[in-house]
Design a protein that fits this description.
This protein has 507 residues and is α+β, with helices and mostly antiparallel strands. The protein has helices spanning 7-14, 57-64, 82-87, 121-131, 170-185, 196-207, 211-224, 231-239, 245-266, 283-288, 290-297, 303-306, 336-350, 392-397, 445-453, 494-502, and strands at residues 70-75, 90-93, 113-118, 157-161, 189-193, 271-275, 310-315, 326-331, 377-381, 401-407, 412-417, 424-429, 437-443, 459-465, 471-477, 486-487. The longest helix is centred in the middle third of the chain and has 22 residues, at 245-266.
């Protein structure tokens, strides 16, 4: 029995998460179908005749049904993405090492990732921010690079596979075409790419020496408990015994070559956009042909961890029979925030329902696009310049016009700065934050310049990232002012904090 939580779970508990349960999955995280478990097959909430997807099947089903708002999964070959596609939810798959795998039963330690299932992109991103912390006790944990460095694209330009094999599933094909047409109608562009390097790299995972890493991870347990191993998984583990160390190194050299080529070719685009799975099989189909059908589900997924990429799975336009049809965004390492920005935009365009709950994705009116007023500069205010507060008149005196209420992205924290008159908060960018209430105002360029000239230290004007994925100018705080400052992030905004102190909701 475990004596401590996995690192990711410990971070979630520390942040206030309540652990509801452990969920069922493909044994040893070996499978994309979700039917390889000695504890039964989790039921797909859209049609119990169809597979739930794996390996993290139970986690995806629990989120899709609305039992929990989010769940953790693992992902080596697509286990945190394929279940998302089959359950109409979001699957966040980070760069390898961004989330510690200490405490996770390994499948392939060099490739394993802890993933997140959620009903919305923002929810997945929020949980990813919490668990994406370097772990000095995990030799495969990696120091995070600046994942905010990517520029915010004004247009969506995706690379897509030049050819697709749907394995006879016309429903999946038609849903993919419908999704592309919907995105194109909203201005997205697509460039077909030769997918042969991705297919070749994927082949290394199960068709070459890399399968030996699974044997190394759980082979001893399998040998000691032969009656407890699912027969299909036992066959896979036995395959790993056929490879030598020389085979493994040759596979690694080829992996590195292909990974570099793939990352280079997809780097110029918003992301590589692929169908999460090229088919949606029934349970009976999988039981009749367990290996080939499982392999087909990894057609657009299996290469991702080998290429050191991150990914974001989400619902696309559903199939004609109302079964889900997922799509996945893929980018190079440490580009999670760029995928989240793009994912938010797709979320708004496609307007999916939340899992299998029947609830529609409700867009906050404040998330509407910033109007393209020619010649005016948009500014986000989060403190004393808000409507009805003491410094709002400064904005108005410069001819500022109120545009709308909004929220920042999940990468900000709010502090009450000591010794300021009137009392002021400080908004600071960070990896582990939450959405903060702001107001968007517009000024002419000349008035903006005069307004900025009057801003006292430690306040400064920088670029604010909004929850919609857009950016605008806005108030930030210099870090030097945070010494002894009160962290009031949990209130979600300055007016909420003031109300809590005064006992009134007049703001």
């Amino acid at each position: 029995e475990a004596k401590e939580d996995a690192h990711a779970v410990a971070l979630l508990r520390k942040a206030g998460a309540i652990v509801i349960a452990k969920t069922n999955m493909d044994q040893f995280a070996t499978g994309l179908v979700g039917v390889r478990s000695p504890y039964g097959i989790p039921e797909n909430p859209f049609n119990p005749d169809y597979v739930p997807g794996g390996s993290s099947s139970g986690s995806a089903v629990a989120v899709a049904r609305g039992t929990v708002p989010f769940a953790l999964g693992t992902d080596t070959a697509g286990s945190g993405r394929v279940p998302a596609g089959f359950n109409n939810i979001v699957g966040w798959k980070p760069t390898r090492g961004l989330v510690s795998t200490r405490g996770v039963v390994p499948a392939c330690r060099t490739l394993d990732c802890v993933s997140v299932f959620a009903l919305t992109v923002d929810d997945a991103d929020t949980i990813g921010n919490i668990i994406g912390e370097f772990d000095s006790k995990d030799p495969y944990s990696r120091e995070k690079r600046d994942v905010r460095a990517g520029k915010v694209a004004k247009r969506l330009h995706f690379a897509i596979p030049s050819e697709a094999n749907w394995f006879g599933d016309e429903g999946a094909h038609n849903a993919w075409i419908a999704t592309l047409e919907k995105l194109k109608a909203e201005g997205a562009e697509f460039t077909p790419l030769d997918f042969s390097p991705m297919h070749e790299l994927a082949e290394i995972l199960y068709g070459d020496a890399w399968v030996a890493e699974r044997t190394a991870a759980v082979g001893a347990f399998a040998a000691a408990h032969p009656g407890d191993i699912h027969p299909v998984i036992a066959k896979i583990l036995n395959q790993g015994k056929a490879f030598s160390a020389a085979n493994m190194w040759r596979a690694e050299y080829r992996r590195a070559e292909l990974a570099l080529r793939i990352r280079t070719v997809i780097e110029p685009y918003t992301a590589l956009l692929v169908p999460t799975a090229p088919r949606f099989p029934t349970i009976s189909e999988v039981l009749n042909d367990p290996v080939a059908i499982n392999a087909s589900l990894g057609t657009y997924m299996n290469f991702v961890n080998l290429a050191d990429c991150c990914a974001l799975a989400m619902p696309g336009i559903p199939r004609n029979n109302e079964l889900p049809a997922g799509i996945t965004l893929i980018a190079g390492p440490w580009r999670e925030k760029e995928l989240v920005r793009a994912g938010r935009r797709l979320e708004g365009i496609l307007g999916w329902t939340l899992g299998a709950t029947g609830r529609t994705l409700r867009r906050d009116p404040s998330a509407a696009a910033i109007p393209k007023s020619t010649g005016r500069i948009f500014v986000a205010v989060a403190g004393a310049h808000l409507s009805g507060l003491p410094l709002n008149q400064e904005l108005i005196s410069h001819g500022a016009e109120f545009v709308r209420k909004a929220k920042t992205s999940t990468h900000y924290r709010l502090y009450r700065i000591k010794g300021t008159t009137p009392p002021k908060p400080g908004l600071v960018f960070c990896e582990k934050g939450m959405p903060i209430d702001v107001e968007i105002w517009s000024l002419s360029p000349s008035e903006f310049g005069m307004f900025v000239a009057g801003i006292p230290a430690p306040m400064t004007i920088g670029t604010i990232e909004l929850g919609s994925g857009e950016t605008c100018k806005g108030f930030l705080c210099e870090p030097c002012a945070l010494q002894d400052a009160e962290d009031i992030t949990a209130f979600g905004g300055w007016k909420n904090y003031i109300s809590s102190q005064t006992g009134t909701s007049r703001f």
